[in-house]
Amino acid sequence: MRKLWLDTETTGLDAERHTIVQIAAICEGEEFHVRLDRQPGTRLSAGALMVNNLMEISPDVQQDPLIAGIDFLKFLKKQKQANQGYRLLLCGHNVAFDLGFLKTFYARMGIDGIDEIFDYHYLDTMHLAVALKDKKVLALSQKLGLNPLCQVFGVKNENAHDALSDIRATKALYQKMLERLWCSLTKNISTT
Question: What share of the chain is helix, strand, coil (3-state, %, to 5)?
């Protein structure tokens, strides 16, 4: 199954009131990245303004949300076609958040089809981190955000809260987490 790694940056935490300002995806080595203008009628939270450095984005690198949305949907459909028409496995860190924003983003524009792209299962590094905490591979006090986990696993994320940098870091984090889990499992097997 083809994995599509996805990250978005948004103007807040509520998909009904806020919107996407960046989309990044990686599938089989092919990358998609776009910065968007805010959709009309959506709000901008002070927290998102600080975290995502939204004031530093130059207007000339932003795209109209409709055009960017259509371009991203074309990218997704191309990846699904390359997967012999099967749905893509959505992957990311707290990826349900990103998927919720994507669905609302497309619904606002009256564009259908996003539900036909992704499999109903998804792979989430946050869920994997919870499992690692449960098996005591991670400290119980370990924070589950992308950046704290990257620090624990030695993954560089030089431009945190940039969607493309975050999704590249998430892919690398997933590999490191799997290695740690595998080492833990093999250690337990050899001691029994």
Answer: 50, 20, 30
Tokens encoding 181: 């889990």
Number of neighbours of residue 11 by Cβ within 10 angstroms: 22
Residue 116 main-chain phi, psi, to 5 deg: -85, -5
- Given this model, what pLDDT does residue 55 score? 47
The pLDDT score that the predictor gives to residue 136 is: 87
Residues of the chain with pLDDT under 70: 38-62, 188-192
179 by DSSP, 3-state: which? helix
What is the Cα–Cα distance from 22 to 161, expressed in whole angstroms?
A: 10
The model's pTM is: 0.86
Q: Which residues pair with 9 in a beta bridge?
A: 22
53 vs 110: CA distance, rounded Å: 29
Give the contacts of 181 (CB within 8 A, at least 6 positions apart).
128, 131, 132, 135, 137
